[in-house]
């Protein structure tokens, strides 16, 4: 088995630092849990809006028309069903 490194003409050289340096990405988003979004009335899977939604945002079932905040559609119990969503906490800067 051989390992080859592909060379790209557009590749930039690696920057070297003197001394010790540790790069840590900022933790502005934390994954809290994995859950399922489904209608609490008819149990039909519901899709979230692109880009995410907050727990207090309104959501409606396209099948039965039930409308409620997102938190009412979210279930964190096992097993999760096919409409899995990642529940994340995001730090927001207050002004």
Task: Report on this structure.
The chain is mainly β and 95 residues long. It has one helix at residues 70-73; strands at 29-37, 58-60, 67-69, 74-75, 84-90. The chain has a domain at 29-90. It contains 1 helix and 5 strands; from the N terminus they run βββαββ. It has a 3-stranded antiparallel sheet. A two-stranded antiparallel ribbon has the order 2-3. The longest helix is centred in the last third of the chain and has 4 residues, at 70-73. It is elongated.
Radius of gyration from the CA trace?
22 Å
Anisotropy-based shape: elongated
Uncertain segments are 1-5
**Helix content range of the residues, please?**
under 10%
Q: Name the helix and strand elements from N-terminus to C-terminus, one letter apiece.
A: EEEHEE
Brief synopsis:
This protein is mainly beta and 95 residues long. It has a domain at 29-90.
Considering the chains and any ligands shown, give keywords for the structure.
disordered N terminus, 95 residues, two-stranded antiparallel sheet, mainly beta, 4% helix, elongated
Chain-wise SSE layout:
Layout: E1 29-37, E2 58-60, E3 67-69, H1 70-73, E4 74-75, E5 84-90
Antiparallel strand pairs: 1-4, 1-5, 2-3
């Amino acid at each position: 088995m051989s390992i080859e490194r592909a060379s790209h003409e557009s590749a930039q050289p690696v920057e070297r630092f003197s001394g010790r340096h540790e790069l840590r990405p900022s933790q502005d988003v934390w994954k809290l849990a994995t859950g399922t979004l489904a209608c609490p009335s008819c149990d039909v899977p519901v899709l979230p809006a692109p880009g995410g939604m907050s727990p207090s945002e309104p959501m409606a079932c396209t099948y039965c028309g039930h409308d409620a905040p997102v938190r009412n559609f979210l279930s964190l119990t096992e097993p999760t069903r096919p409409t899995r969503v990642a529940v994340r906490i995001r730090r927001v800067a207050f002004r």
